[in-house]
Amino acid sequence: MYDVIIIGAGPAGSSAAIFTSKAGKKTLVIDNNQSVTKRAWIDNHYGTEGVTGPQLVESGIRQAKKFGAEYVEDTAVKVESSDGTVTVTTESGKTYQAKHAILGTGMSVTLAENSGIQTAPGTEPRIKSIVSVDAQGRTSMPNVWAAGTVAGVSMHTIITAGDGAKVAINIISELNGERYVDHDVLKQS
Predict the structure, then answer these.
(1) Span 140-156, mean pLDDT?
(2) What is the DSSP-derived secondary structure letter of residue 116?
(3) 81 pairs with which residues across the strands?
(4) What's the domain count of the chain?
(5) Residue 126 domain-assigned?
(6) 46, pLDDT greater than 90
(7) From CA 170, how far away is CA 176, in angstroms rounded?
(8) This prediction's pTM
(9) What does residue 63 show for φ and ψ, rounded to 5 degrees?
């Protein structure tokens, strides 16, 4: 069983995976390779000077894998939560279990709707519906969280990545039983 399953490998999902895996949490990312970011040119993302969407997505995946995150290419079709365990079923018929799950499904609420997770009208242009979340990123389903555009934040990659990190930190804090902070220190030569 995983500590965290993340659905979506775009900026929100992979950012969350970087934090959870770096914190030593067993992390699985399920991605259908359909991220809208893969069609973008990004010239407003802090720390990078002009990058293609595919480059940004691949960089996030590499960074999360460096810390131990696992990636599976498949489409999640249903999420269920019972007795502290979240079960994710994929289009290929596989099931995966974790203590927590994060929906980082970009502009799509289909998985949430198919799973009975509460949605609401969208808040951004061209976003018809979002997943209803509280300030920490929790959805209406126990132990299921949402981050990024699907959770109602601006679809700019820098903001969705930050939201993914925020939700991951909240989950890590809950798993650890105390507030988690991840600060690396520059090594002096």
Answers:
(1) 96
(2) T
(3) 86
(4) 1
(5) yes
(6) no
(7) 10
(8) 0.94
(9) -65, -45
